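Hi support team,

I've been running sequence recovery on a batch of backbones for a student project. Most finish fine, but this one hangs at about 90% for roughly twenty minutes before it completes. I'm not sure whether the input is malformed or the queue is just slow. I've pasted the structure tokens below so you can try to reproduce it. Let me know if you need the job ID as well.

Thanks,
M.K.
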């Protein structure tokens, strides 16, 4: 994958005596200057990038404050790996997470519960999946439920559940039971606090200062109130960052969008 491509000659780290632009610490220590020009210590750099991975972000970016806004410049994984001085365990953990996120980001993959290989679902409306790798690697036919990840029980096809006890769409459970909230500084009241991204289906909790959010998985910006993309001319009235949209407040979602690039 592109994340792990070996470069012919990686530039040597540039060490400077400046404050840590991630933590704000200004003690007299050597720190590394990143490609964006901001500086960080190995510990703070590792901690920040780990927090991004834990939130499901696929790319690393600089959080340094620039006149009240984040720098936002992207760092390559190679730069982070070099400057954060990752241990072998940390490096393996980072790369495993990046690989899984990349598989999920570019295609809809899940891990087969039998052979532990990543499998892509061809029919996005059918939860019954046949693992072709089980057949090729083990010479056996194995079917599992895309939703509960247990061996398939039931007959025919299904888009809702299999016959395994407890098989249910966890995302729909979250959407149905999340709290309602008033969007900050807004006239929009009783909005569901968690939404499924209308493009890729990732669940997102509203933590922003306005009604617009950017999905960390597909990077599409959308309105948390009406669920239209931010660039859709019907999404809002002029200057209505905190006001009602041209469209009404969307109710709780009862379906989770499935992202397909095909």
């Amino acid at each position: 994958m592109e994340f792990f491509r070996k470069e012919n000659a990686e530039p040597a780290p540039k060490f400077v005596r400046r404050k840590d632009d991630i933590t704000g610490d200004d003690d007299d220590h050597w720190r590394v200057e990143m490609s964006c020009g901001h500086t960080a210590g190995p510990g703070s750099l590792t901690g920040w990038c780990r927090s991004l991975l834990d939130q499901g972000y696929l790319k690393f970016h600089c959080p340094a404050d620039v006149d009240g806004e984040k720098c936002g410049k992207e760092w390559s994984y190679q730069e982070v790996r070099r400057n954060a001085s990752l241990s072998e365990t940390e490096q393996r953990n980072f790369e495993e997470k990046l690989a899984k996120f990349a598989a999920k980001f570019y295609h809809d993959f899940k891990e087969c519960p039998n052979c532990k290989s990543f499998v892509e679902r061809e029919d996005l409306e059918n939860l019954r999946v046949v693992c072709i790798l089980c057949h090729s690697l083990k010479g056996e036919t194995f079917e599992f439920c895309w939703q509960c990840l247990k061996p398939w029980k039931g007959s025919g096809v299904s888009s809702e559940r299999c016959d395994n006890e407890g098989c249910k769409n966890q995302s729909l459970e979250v959407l149905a039971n999340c709290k309602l909230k008033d969007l900050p500084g807004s006239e929009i009241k009783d909005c569901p606090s968690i939404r499924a991204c209308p493009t890729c289906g990732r669940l997102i909790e509203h933590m922003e200062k306005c009604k617009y959010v950017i999905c960390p998985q597909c990077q599409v910006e959308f309105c948390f109130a009406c669920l239209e993309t931010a660039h859709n001319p019907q999404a809002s009235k002029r200057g209505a960052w905190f006001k009602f949209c041209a469209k009404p407040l969307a109710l709780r979602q009862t379906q989770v969008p499935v992202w397909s690039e095909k």
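--
Follow-up from support: It reproduced on our side and the slowdown came from queue contention, not your input. The first strand starts at residue 14 and ends at 16. No action needed from you.
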